[in-house]
């Protein structure tokens, strides 16, 4: 027998005796997204509820969240960030929004789509990416290896700039999970990441430090 | 007494008397409790969330065979290689084998308690591999050659000064004791390790059965980098980590972060489903997932304690445990400490050798109250005591309880005990506080109240004839 | 109604005033009190240490004494939990299981009995002191008693109730306090520190066993705090 069969047969043998129900439970209904939504933090019904909740969450997480009035504002917003922080090299990927953002940036842009050199990516001061969704409930950004320039682009450069459309702002985690299933199941990207705020640690005396390994700064531009 | 028990008692005496330790741990965990309660309050129904989480893990564990097969199928369909290991040693051999075959020399690792459990780092070192922990807390304790102090906060027992000293000694770089500067030192050192690493090893927080995805929770981005840069990625996952559906993460991710760290959701929750896929710019060429049993099926076979496999390793039972807070994580001498460790260790490593852990509890139940997946922790401790006393009783305790029963049940004998007790207390001051004192275990640190001049029963007999 | 008291060993020997206070309160409320002279112990020490056979040997005698009672009231959440919560577990699968469940159903902790069963919250007591309340873990988590003692304290004239910032075990834990005195003592010190932080003069509790441990530490360490059982506060006899 292989170890796989060994383990599975031990499991089947063990499960022949049923376990008592967990604490405080009389039956085990299979929890559904509606059940989750009843217990999770509340999210208001309108788009402006979602935007203001996302903004409040972002502020608490020390991420910068900017709502741009129109796509025309994107180019100048990125450029002013570049000037303020003195970017000399930026990394990004091909995409409708990223193309606009990077077109007239005036600094070399490393595109990761066709592969890249890790040390070159490491030398970039910012990574500009699109996302699959923003989640109002938690102030999170959902990226994938397929839609956001791979695995490293969203975590290696010290400043991660996310570009999102209003239609991408979902209410809550159940909605985000449903979206993933609908869009990908069963052919999921090899990496899906829910990013919430800049990289952080509290491992030294529980004192919050940003930029432990990943980006020190996270900016989310909603168009 | 077993060697583990003797060491435990010795360590416990030292740590409980260490007021500096008490101050550090209480300050850290009091801060945590404030944040945890704030985040809990955001939930519309926390008690309901616990019930749903318990029901979901119940479902997963009680259909574990099907969940695992489904999970493995999903991963394999994307080109991941799934390995099954019955023991820790097998898992180590599998991982060393993969690394050798890939000609790997340097390995970056993100925090995994499962790897601690099977002593993976030692196995990798023996195979001549250079392995570095990338989670800041784990990195610090690795530099100090210490095991993690806590399953979520590995370096919570250290002050910034101690960490500065460690960095100065081991890295030759510690500009100050400022947490930010120290973190940046680690970031610089570890960035180079990432760039050079041939392989990355991670643990897993959840194994999503119906999607065939690993879910990894972290705050620093170190696991993200571990999964992004090296050519080979390996994930070690205990078989109990399954959850049935992708949608279940919507519940578990915020619950884990809330009770684990006082956050609504952790910084990075990342799902891994395979090696680099066609059309993706980066990611490992090979992705290996090692499923570990290592006595988990033994827990599964114990239907009463099967719920211990619901554990999501959030650490919340440690955080509220007055025993943990006073004896510290290292005194346990086990991979898993705190209440969950006291329940798991006797099953995983032997009841008679480790029965002192279930006995070292006031059975206060704070752990059970805190557990987000409803594990009946403190009653399992009681059950362990029963099993320990049943299989190998202490003769003098058994005798004492045997003799006590008829005494406590008899009016006459109890009156006799009362009278002789009074006499004994008259003589007590002669030996009080010395080793000859029969009540030494109590009187060494506490006064004993005197037996009343008139006991309740004497009063009752006198006043209600 | 006729109330059967179960007086645990340490109340009999060390704190008879707690039992007497309870008798006075319940008689003043017009009830008839009976009190079996034996057994003096519910069998919890053996049970918690894992010696269930030895525990049962005592517990059957307790069941025998309590089987005809109308209600059973116990001035201790810990012994109360033993009879109410753990007897059905201890006797599961034995011939006494139905009796254990029957006794369990009519068993109350003192504060719970007053508030939840009798609906009494004001006993006209006076206690002009600042106090903090210690929840015995068995009362709190096995019997789910939280509000009842506080409701009673809030109606005591002159009494100011200040909560500790943490609800935590005092470290007594029965045989645990003797098996691991170092841990037990450290936990007790933390408890005393928390109580002292509130500025309270007294720690009030429904569990004399916790108070024995806490008072023992206070006396040894010459701390300023005092301990008192809820029944004594309510009876107003001090």
Task: Report what the structure shows.
The complex is a heterotrimer of chains A (223), B (465) and C (238). Chain A has one domain: 3-Layer(aba) Sandwich (Rossmann fold), CATH 3.40.50.10420. Chain A starts with a helix and ends with a strand. Chain A is of the alpha/beta class and 223 residues long. In chain A, a hairpin with a 7-residue loop joins strand 10 and strand 11 (209-210). The longest helix of chain A is centred in the N-terminal third of the chain and has 15 residues, at 47-61. Chain A has helices at 3-14, 33-39, 47-61, 72-85, 96-103, 118-122, 173-184, and strands at residues 64-67, 90-92, 109-111, 126-130, 133-135, 140-144, 159-164, 169-170, 191-195, 200-201, 209-210, 217-222. The longest helix of chain B has 24 residues, at 19-42. Chain B is an alpha/beta fold. The model of chain B has no long low-confidence stretch (mean pLDDT 95). Among the domains of chain B are: 43-294, Rossmann fold (3-Layer(aba) Sandwich), CATH 3.40.50; 395-463, no CATH class. In chain B, strand 5 and strand 6 (213-218) form a beta hairpin. Chain B is built from 24 helices and ten strands. Chain C is of the alpha/beta class and 238 residues long. Chain C contains 13 helices and eight strands. Chain C has helices at 9-13, 16-28, 44-49, 52-66, 77-90, 97-105, 110-117, 137-142, 147-154, 176-179, 181-197, 208-221, 230-235; strands spanning 2-5, 32-34, 71-74, 107-109, 130-134, 160-161, 202-205, 226-229. In chain C, strands 2-1-3-4 form a four-stranded parallel sheet, with helices on both faces. In chain C, strand 7, helix 12 and strand 8 (226-229) form a beta-alpha-beta unit. In chain C, helix 5 runs antiparallel to helix 6 (97-105), helix 7 packs across helix 9 (147-154) and helix 11 (181-197) packs across helix 12 (208-221). The mean pLDDT of chain C is 95. Chains in contact: A-B, B-C. The interface between A and B is large, with 93 and 117 residues. Strand 9 of chain A pairs antiparallel with strand 9 (268-272) of chain B.
């Amino acid at each position: 027998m292989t170890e796989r069969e060994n383990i599975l047969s031990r499991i089947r043998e063990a499960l022949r005796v049923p376990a008592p129900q967990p604490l405080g439970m009389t039956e085990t209904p299979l929890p559904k997204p509606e059940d989750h939504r009843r217990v999770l933090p509340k999210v208001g019904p309108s788009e402006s509820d979602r935007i203001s909740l996302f903004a409040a969450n972002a502020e608490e997480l020390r991420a910068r969240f900017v709502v741009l009035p129109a796509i025309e504002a994107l180019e100048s917003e990125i450029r002013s960030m570049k000037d303020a922080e003195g970017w000399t090299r930026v990394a990004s990927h091909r995409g409708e929004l990223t193309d606009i953002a990077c077109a007239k940036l005036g600094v070399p842009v490393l595109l990761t789509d066709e592969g890249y050199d890790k040390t070159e990516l490491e030398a970039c001061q910012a990574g500009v990416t699109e996302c699959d969704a923003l989640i109002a409930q938690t102030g999170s950004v959902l990226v994938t290896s397929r839609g956001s320039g791979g695995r490293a682009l969203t975590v290696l450069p010290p400043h991660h700039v996310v570009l999102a459309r209003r239609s991408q702002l979902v209410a809550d985690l159940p909605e985000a999970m449903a979206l993933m299933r609908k869009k990908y199941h069963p052919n999921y990207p090899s990496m899906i990441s829910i990013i919430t705020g800049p990289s952080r640690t509290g491992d030294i005396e529980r004192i919050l430090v940003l930029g432990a390994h990943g980006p020190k700064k996270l900016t989310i531009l909603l168009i | 007494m077993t060697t583990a028990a003797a060491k435990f008692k010795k360590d416990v005496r030292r740590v409980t008397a260490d007021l500096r330790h008490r101050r550090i741990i209480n300050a850290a965990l009091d801060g945590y409790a404030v944040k945890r309660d704030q985040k809990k309050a955001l939930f519309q129904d926390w008690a309901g969330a616990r019930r749903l989480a318990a029901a979901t893990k119940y479902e997963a564990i009680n259909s574990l065979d099907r969940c695992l097969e489904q999970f493995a199928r999903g991963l394999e369909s994307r080109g991941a290689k799934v390995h099954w290991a019955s023991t820790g040693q097998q898992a180590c051999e599998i991982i060393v084998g993969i690394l050798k075959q890939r000609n790997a020399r340097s390995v970056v690792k993100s925090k995994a308690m499962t790897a601690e459990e099977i002593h993976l780092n030692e196995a990798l070192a023996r195979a001549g591999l250079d392995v570095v922990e990338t989670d800041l807390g784990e990195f610090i304790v690795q530099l100090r050659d210490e095991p993690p102090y806590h399953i979520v906060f590995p370096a919570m027992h250290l002050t910034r000064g101690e960490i500065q000293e460690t960095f100065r000694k081991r890295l030759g770089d510690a500009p100050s004791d400022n947490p930010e500067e120290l973190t940046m030192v680690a970031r610089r050192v570890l960035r180079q390790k990432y760039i050079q690493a041939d392989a990355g090893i991670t643990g897993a927080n959840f194994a999503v059965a119906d999607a065939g995805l690993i879910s990894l929770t972290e705050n620093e981005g170190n696991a993200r980098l571990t999964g992004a840069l090296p050519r080979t990625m390996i994930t070690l996952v205990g078989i109990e980590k399954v959850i049935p559906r992708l949608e279940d993460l919507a519940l578990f991710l915020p619950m884990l972060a809330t009770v684990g760290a006082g956050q609504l959701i952790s910084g990075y929750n990342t799902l891994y489903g395979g090696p680099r896929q066609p059309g993706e710019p980066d990611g490992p060429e090979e992705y290996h997932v090692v499923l570990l049993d290592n006595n988990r099926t033994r827990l599964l076979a114990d239907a009463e304690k099967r719920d211990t496999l619901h554990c999501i390793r959030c650490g919340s039972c440690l955080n509220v445990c007055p025993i943990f807070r006073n004896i510290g994580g290292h005194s346990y001498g086990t991979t898993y400490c705190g209440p969950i460790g006291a329940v798991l260790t006797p099953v995983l490593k032997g009841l008679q050798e480790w029965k002192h852990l279930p006995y070292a509890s006031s059975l206060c139940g704070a752990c059970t109250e805190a557990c987000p997946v409803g594990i009946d922790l403190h009653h399992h401790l009681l059950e362990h005591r029963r099993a320990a006393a049943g299989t190998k009783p202490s003769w003098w305790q058994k005798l004492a309880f045997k003799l006590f029963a008829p005494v406590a049940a008899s009016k006459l004998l109890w009156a006799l005990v009362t009278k002789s007790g009074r006499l004994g207390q008259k003589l007590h001051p002669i030996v009080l506080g010395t080793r000859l004192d029969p009540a030494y275990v109590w009187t060494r640190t506490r006064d004993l109240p005197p037996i009343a001049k008139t006991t309740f029963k004497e009063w009752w007999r006198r006043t209600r004839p | 109604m006729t109330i059967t008291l179960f007086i645990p060993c340490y109340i009999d020997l060390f704190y008879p005033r707690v039992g007497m206070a309870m008798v006075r309160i319940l008689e003043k409320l017009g009830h008839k009190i009976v009190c079996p002279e034996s057994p003096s112990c519910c069998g919890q020490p053996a049970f918690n240490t894992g010696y269930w056979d030895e525990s049962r040997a005592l517990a059957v005698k307790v069941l025998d004494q309590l089987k005809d009672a109308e209600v059973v009231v116990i001035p201790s959440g810990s012994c109360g939990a033993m009879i109410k919560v753990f007897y059905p577990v201890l006797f599961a699968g034995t011939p006494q299981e139905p009796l254990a469940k029957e006794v369990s159903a009519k068993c109350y902790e003192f504060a719970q009995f007053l508030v939840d069963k009798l609906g009494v919250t004001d006993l006209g007591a006076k206690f002009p002191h600042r106090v903090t309340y210690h929840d015995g873990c068995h009362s709190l988590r096995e019997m789910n008693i939280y509000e009842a003692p506080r409701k009673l304290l809030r109606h005591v004239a002159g009494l100011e109730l200040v909560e500790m910032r943490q609800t935590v075990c005092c470290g007594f834990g029965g045989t645990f306090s003797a098996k691991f005195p170092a841990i037990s003592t450290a936990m007790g010190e933390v408890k005393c520190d928390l109580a002292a932080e509130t500025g309270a003069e007294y720690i009030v509790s429904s569990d004399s066993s916790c108070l024995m441990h806490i008072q023992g530490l206070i006396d040894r360490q010459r701390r300023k705090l005092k301990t008192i059982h809820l029944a004594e506060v309510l009876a107003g006899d001090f």
